[in-house]
Prior knowledge:
131 residues; Aspartate Aminotransferase, domain 1; five-stranded antiparallel β-sheet
Amino acid sequence: MKEDKTFDAKTLIEEAKASEHREAYKTLDRNLNFRIGIGVRLEPPDALSFFVEILIYLCPPFSKADLRVLEKCLACLKELQVRNYSLTCQDGNCISCEKAVPSKQLAEEHTAVKSLIKKYSRLSFQTGKLV
């Protein structure tokens, strides 16, 4: 299934207002090795916090560990950390990388991190295969 790559900050805000957790998220890109999305959190009293999140899966399910892939993941994670992303270990062999971004800079940040991920892993967005 092809995902919609467009996003609208106003729609995200409305979804967050309707959400029990006062948060909304939209996945923009994904394959077996990563997921990139944007979101918004409503923080008391009425503050908005937009963010970009990248999940980097270190070992795809039912796969042997590949040191070459892990080295590329580490290099990518280091660069994301330099770009002020917080790095957090998650279940499912992945690292969550998150950064608060003003709403007007979401598209620019998405383009930058998508390019960064491609640089390190030469990911194929259609096939979901790491080369």
